[in-house]
What does this fold into?
Amino acid sequence: MKKRTFGTAIRVAASLSILAGCKGPGLAWGVAAMNWGGLPVQQAPHASATLALTLYGDSWALVTDARPVSLGSGDQIVRFPGVPSQTDDRNAYLQIPARVDARRFRYDLKTRDKLLEQYHGSIVEIVPKDATGSLQATLLMTDTGPVYKIGDTIYPEPPGKVALPDRPDLATDPTLEWIAAPSNPWSGVATASYVANQLGWQSEYTLVTDRLQTRGEWTHWAAITNRSGAAYRNARVTLVAGDVTRKEHIVPLPMLAGGARAYADTAQSIPAEPYAARYQYVLPEPLTLARGAEERLKLGTRDGVAITRVYRFESAVAFYRITEPELPQKARLRLTIKNTGASGLGLPIPRGKVAVYTPDTQGRLAIAGEPRIPDTPKEQDLILDLGEAFDVTAKRVQTDYRVTDQGQEVAYRITLRNQQDVPVTVELIEQMNGDWTITSSSIPFEKLSTTQAKFTPTVPAGGEVVVTYQASIKKERPQ
It folds into this structure.
């Protein structure tokens, strides 16, 4: 029994060491962590920090923060002030030639209740309304907030304005701290890696087309947002495209020298580099991000991109009798771009919003639509849904319905009308379930899948086209 108890204690101590980012023996963690207040502090100045940022699309970033520091021997606190208020300290890591035994994140001004917690049990001053003097009260914290004891009375709300005395141990700046223990005095660069929330990027695109939307200029933008509570000066930046799973208590690896740099908007394009089954954009020049900044940086432009404009109808086929006439249906206007080199692209395209600009008859640009696109690899089509077309319509009529020994038969007549001054290509998608077959049709069709048939007629300017077909569905076979 004693052996089992000792082994359990070792495993628990080792687990605590891992969670603290400890490099040394697990049993040292508990001793060092109890002595934060009695250790000397070695400050790593924020003004001398060299920063690198790896930004992800879900509004978080890995910050690599390198600062000069001088350490003596033995246990001491290495302090990194000026980190973001949105720091996720579960993932903080310190790269330094010393044993690291404990870690904490301090920011007493992050919320009102967090600030008041630092004064639990302390005497505070309350200035009553319409009074010249003040009262002394003991501030007590409950699970739902502060209460105030004045004499023998407890007040759920303070009877006036609360004034807190200054305290030298108050963490008024977001700060990361580690307890480190070098074997010998050391001076050099300590590198901290940590996750900052509310700092990330998204892809945005502009497509400027000709009037008939047959060619266009495609531009990729990086929209960077900084709500992390810190500024980043002359930071090297890498943008990672694609979903990255975040697990709790995973320690990020530090970015070593020669990492990413940010992009100054010039005529050059930033290529997408393969990275861990995803892609990243390494920006070539340092970037400064102010607190609350929203930056849009051009990553590249492709001109002369080939576009196919299609008017699309999708309807469900009813294998039962319809007695009420169907209402006319407006077409969905869709632009299709083949993501190939021959079409002018041939790039990995991260998901994002596309602002499509098309000139009017006077040559003035206006937004024709703002669709969103998914992650699109090379050789896969980009589909841009711009919304309903005003004057391309379809009217469907069920012309026949019969029940047979084999199943059901149904027939449809679809009248496509085009009131524009140019001919249009229409994709007519008929949705059918079950074991169906089109037995006859007025124009050829393509079976896209087990549930879709596609007709592709061209409707002349100011004219109409009638598409008819008959379909049958077999009865289900008995089990």
Observations:
- Residues 1-33, 248-267 have pLDDT under 50 and may be disordered.
- Residues 2-19 form the longest helix (18 residues).
